Structure prediction request, 863 residues.
Amino acid sequence: MNDVKSPGRYNAAEAEARWQAEWDRQKIFEAPDASDKPKYYVLEMFPYPSGRIHMGHVRNYTLGDVIARYKRARGYNVLHPMGWDAFGLPAENAAREQKVHPAEWTYSNIANMRRELKTMGLSLDWSREIATCHPGYYRHQQQMFLEMLEQGLAYRGESLVNWDPVDETVLANEQVIDGRGWRSGARVEKRTLHQWFFRITAFADELLSALNTLDRWPERVRLMQKNWIGRSEGVTVEFALKDRDDSLEVYTTRHDTLFGASFCAISPDHPLSAVIAADNEAAAAFIAECQSLGTSEAVIEREEKIGFDTGIKALHPFRDNVELPVYIANFVLMDYGSGAIFGCPAHDQRDLDFARKYDLAVLPVVAPEGSGADFTVATEAYVGPGRLVNSDFLDGMSIGDAKGEVARRLEAAGRGRRAVRFRLRDWGVSRQRYWGCPIPVIHCPACGIVPVPLADLPVELPQDVTFDKPGNPLDHHPTWKNVGCPACGADAKRETDTFDTFVDSSWYFARFCSARADLPVDKASVDYWLPVDQYVGGIEHAILHLLYSRFYVRAMRKSGHVALDEPFAGLFTQGMVCHETYRDVDGRWLYPEEVDFSGAAPTNGKDGSPVTVGRSESMSKSKKNVVDPGSIIEQYGADTARWFMLSDSPPGRDLEWSDQGIQGAWRYLNRLWRDVTEPGGPVAAAGVAPPPGFIKAPSDSPAGKVYRSLHKTIAGVTKDLDSFHFNRAVARIREFTNLLEEFDADDAEAAWVRREALETVVKLVGPMMPHVAEELWHHLGHDDLLARAPWPETDLAAATEDMVTIAVQVGGKLRATLEVERDAARERLEIAALADENVQRAIAGKEVRKVIVVPNKIVNVVV
Prediction:
């Protein structure tokens, strides 16, 4: 035995830099593409290189790193890569505002963020680093686009877009604020433009049904995708139009309510709207007003529901002489159904509000059980179950039966047909921007759209661009877009649209499998590594990014690049990092470090004026409620930041940042340091065998109790890490170290148990606080890296409950109970039962014929 000497106070900055350098030197986190170990691919959603990491990054990448380090210790060949989602509009904005080229701005930010991420001690395979803005990445994206074009999964078509007439660019819905462009402030116009699309709807049924196989995804994410795909079964109804040769097609899922229809409405973008507006200035003005809202469904839904009466009448398909006024309405969307609806106000709240505004009839046609034809609707539409009323041949039917009967009669009369529709629309991937992946096609006046030959890929962005004009710099470039047609040699033009950045992030996980391959992916590598075993990221990506990635894998499967159906076997969505907000007397936001908390109430550190403390919200630069990870790591070390991120709340919930919390994490790290470097008693030397017989039957001594508690902790932490209960794992470790600090025995058994406990605790905290764990592992006498050490095994016998209660029966009646060790020997149980005073009284004067012992449960004395 020997006493472990203290090396002095823990120096986080020195130790963390030293161990990070050693991990890099030994290339310990570089994953081989072939191994006799089982594979495990863990991936966090890669960051946009904005220039600085934030606390959301710290939490996200800490969670993923714990998983990676834990799985590596459990014997897996772990792939844990990092890259950069590097194209995007912020780089163009920086080019305009800071007069710096987007590439220079982006690569500078990547270098800075790479340095910051490395200070966190993440177990990343940096040899596979990728940046989506690098031609070595996007040339493969261009190749796959050409493959999709050939297969019919990519096409060029027309679509309505939000157009900023000042910046001369298409805006996403999120960039339209109160009908104006977010940057220019110009009134947004709806325009029909030629755009490139991916035919994601070709896989709509498969994308929907396969959600049932994703049993390691959060249920709410699967539900969000299900609703976004939006499969519905209904009918299309052909409404004849009075005194006109054309008709109005309406898709509905509530054809049971057809007898309650009191109006029809069409989208401002419906072809009939354009026909009407051509001869009606008032209609044209109304349509222009609607189009100023942009294309966001959420914005349109919030607006007051208004309409324009076209004067056209639709004829009811079942009710003779019933004419329904046709409105152009701002709430009807062209990209769902057929861009037209029939309104049944009694059973749809939006229709009811519209009907009350324009004094239209409200006729209930579904009444709750027990109600009849006199059922009425006032201010709230009835959307519950019931039976049909006021509906001619449908009266008395259930909703389901009524739907079937309406569909049958419409089809028989040639006025409609059953139909399945999806809310999902094809993915528009065109963006009128410079800083994106060029779309590799050429427009020839004679040949039309001509793919760029594979030999000419990548189509690279020109470097000599300017941002002194509105619109897409690629349109303004004097030479780049001018090219000969590959088919006929005539003068032609390159496509100047670039890809939506969601395209870049829809396949990067596959590129990581063979990041330097000459093809988009190396087949053997993706067959080995994919799917990603554990994906980690925010709930805000639940629909678009994840759905697009699922589509992209199917497109790659069709091209023969992969042989799988789903990219991510497991998904974990972490919560946000939140902080209080602060405002000065003028309502301006303040950074936390600008607030003085030393007095009775918080004040402005500059002038002592009062500060209003607001509710805790997700950290954001706009509200200044941010904490710089760099300053925290500099002051406390990365391990402290990691430990706080893991300990304060379940990882799926929002985490409240507090100075007290980070200080508490720092105090615990130093406690752990002292527990190992200044133990409360002798510690056996590394590699010393346990006392004879101790492992199989740990005693009831203090050392035996610590040993049993240790293995319960191992079992609990292992279970917690497997189930992402990281905060529970932290609590278990802290509880055990509290016990260990009270352990003051000093015999040989205690010295061995203390060594076993200290080494095991260091292993358990290794995935969470890897730097101090490596330092302590080395201090305990080990030469190899803890990062290579296996996870501690649980002694199941010691980890189970120590004591059990045994019932003792005499002649079938309970006479006593015994508190004994689990799995106590039969002979010991029989002796203890027969020695009990109550049992002796029960058998007094009687012959004991036999004693039946059921271990851990009962002793039955037969007399």
